[in-house]
Specification:
Length: 105
């Protein structure tokens, strides 16, 4: 995952899944310290990733993610969504590692 700019609404990024073409995305909404929505635009559909950050302690937070596929051609993306679902846990672990690294820098 590569963020091109600051973690703020409108910033863009690229994710390169293993064995797949890169996906370009945009931060559609960011509420600092609370939540973010990432949107990947597809032909006649879009995928949104809604992250919610919940403080547990002053140094730890819980991150939850909701993934939605929306649009006219949902059936055409069924196989890709199954593959995406299989990689979500690993992807979230990478996200946590990147956040921890940035926090501890």
């Amino acid at each position: 995952m590569e963020l091109q700019g600051k973690f703020e609404q409108g910033s863009k990024g690229i994710t390169k899944p293993v064995g797949a073409d890169p996906n370009e995305w945009v931060l559609a909404e960011v509420i600092p310290g609370q939540s973010a929505i990432i949107r990947i635009t597809l032909p006649q559909a879009s995928i949104t990733f809604h992250w919610v950050f919940e403080p547990i302690t002053t140094a730890r937070s819980k991150i939850t993610q909701e993934v939605k596929l929306e649009g006219e051609k949902l059936d055409e993306y069924g196989a890709a969504m199954k593959t995406l679902k299989q990689g979500i846990k690993a992807g979230m672990n990478k996200l946590v590692t990147a956040i921890e690294k940035a926090y501890n820098s």
